[in-house]
Amino acid sequence: MSVTDIDLTRRRRHLVLAICSSGLLVVGLDATIVNIALPSIHRELGSSLAGLQWTVDAYTLVLASLLILAGSTADRVGRKRVFRLGLLVFSLGSLLCAVAPTPSALIAARVLQAIGGSMLSPVAMSIIRTVFVDPAERARAIGVYAAMFGLSIALGPVLGGVLVAAVGWRAVFLVNVPVGAVAILATHRFVPESRANRPRRIDPVGQMLVIVGLASLTYGIIEGPDHGWGSIDIVVSLALAALALAVLIPYELRRREPLLELRWFRSAPFSGASAIALCAFAALGAFLFLNTLYLQDVRGLSPLRAGLCMLPMALMVLVFAPLSGRLVGSRGPRPPLLAAGVGLIAAVAMLTQLRADSPIGYVLLAYTVFGVGFGLVNPPITNTAVSGMPAGQAGVAAAVASTSRQVGLTMGVALAGAIAGGSAALGGGTAAGFTAATRPAWWMILGAVAAVLVLAVVSTTRWAEATARRTAEAHA
């Protein structure tokens, strides 16, 4: 069946939303749930700081590299088919993570997880885009969907703490298997098939350039502190990343049906949403990575208590993400984006003053304010990414926003580790030394969230809205 918009009953539409959200839940959880297990993985498998960074970034890097390909493939061969395959591969990867005997085996299994996960996030978003035809109802649905993603990201450390304390770090992966099995059955039974009437051609050269660029950049940032920034492999890696980007842009502009539709970025709201996603999720990735080590290695908290300290953040995301979705539907993206920028700046400014003996109430307040800001930021990003784009390219448009998120998470973890240095982590120094070593990283994060506020202002002006209308008309 080749369709763009699907007419379903209201109950069926909301059931589809629940199924898509469940797939997104496991993808989001596994982007952050592993953070709380890092000290346990280090102790049991003997992983280095760089190994721990790769345990997180191997997942987000592969996700970022394959999301656009997965979105365009789903538009071509069927969104339901790709979504169901993604659930199967993701569940298999999770099982292999749970039984991994070495750090290398764990990282390899994380790569398989991410291959499956890349088929879930943009495809689920494009399914929702085709099922919810009414713009106001779609905005509310996207608000729920984005809330699930934001909640999964924030809830990861909390659930991870419970599972690590009760069972062990392997449980953070094993829990995905039954969830995936149920989601596969529900997808087969209730999700309608859809595809684009005129899907894009596969772009293998563009896809390879994206993978090489992102992988080289991440490798250079993560391994730079250990190998030396002037070492041959790091210089070559960073140069290769720059070369891949320099080749990708003109190559994609010349293609009739590129992997990455750079012309969409003529829309200021679309490009602004992508940049905001990159900055906000870089801040989130660095925030979770640094605070996991701070709570367990500096404060001496157990994984369970460290996870519970993240609960205020998760609760705020749960409350404010649906509220943000409703605001987008009734008043547009500007109010929640501006409020998100202010909240994130306030929270990170507090964390720049973090000390080993900071009152726990101060720490929890900073986490709470961060959760408010992060809960508000995600729904307007998602809605802007898909609402103004052609319905037949919903998978690709959603994938661009998802890619920005995953690139942000990857870069946030890589940069935080590189700036803080290995001596700041894994108990390799004093508690005071940790907070001193991580302070520059917090200032980096403050710069990222300040950019969120600036981009929110610029991308929601009347001029920006006019660029969105012209871009939509040109690609209708």
Characterization of the model:
The chain is mainly α and 476 residues long. It has 2 domains: 10-194 and 259-474, Growth Hormone, Chain: A, CATH 1.20.1250; 204-258. Helices cover 79% and strands 0% of the residues. The chain has helices spanning 10-32, 38-45, 49-77, 79-98, 103-117, 121-131, 135-166, 171-174, 176-190, 204-227, 232-254, 268-298, 303-309, 311-331, 334-351, 360-387, 394-420, 431-458, 462-474. Helix 6 packs antiparallel against helix 17. The chain is globular and about 60 Å long. The model is unreliable at 1-5 and 423-428 (pLDDT under 50).
Q: How are the SSEs ordered, and which strands pair?
A:
Blueprint: H1 10-32, H2 38-45, H3 49-77, H4 79-98, H5 103-117, H6 121-131, H7 135-166, H8 171-174, H9 176-190, H10 204-227, H11 232-254, H12 268-298, H13 303-309, H14 311-331, H15 334-351, H16 360-387, H17 394-420, H18 431-458, H19 462-474
The helix-strand sequence is: HHHHHHHHHHHHHHHHHHH
Rg calc:
21 Å
Note the main sheet: none
At CATH level 3, the topology of the largest domain is Growth Hormone, Chain: A
CATH 4th-level superfamily of the largest domain: MFS general substrate transporter like domains
Number of strands: 0
User: Helix content range of the residues, please?
Assistant: over 70%
- Multimerization state: single chain
Task: Classify the secondary structure makeup into a structural class.
Answer: mainly alpha
At CATH level 2, the architecture of the largest domain is Up-down Bundle
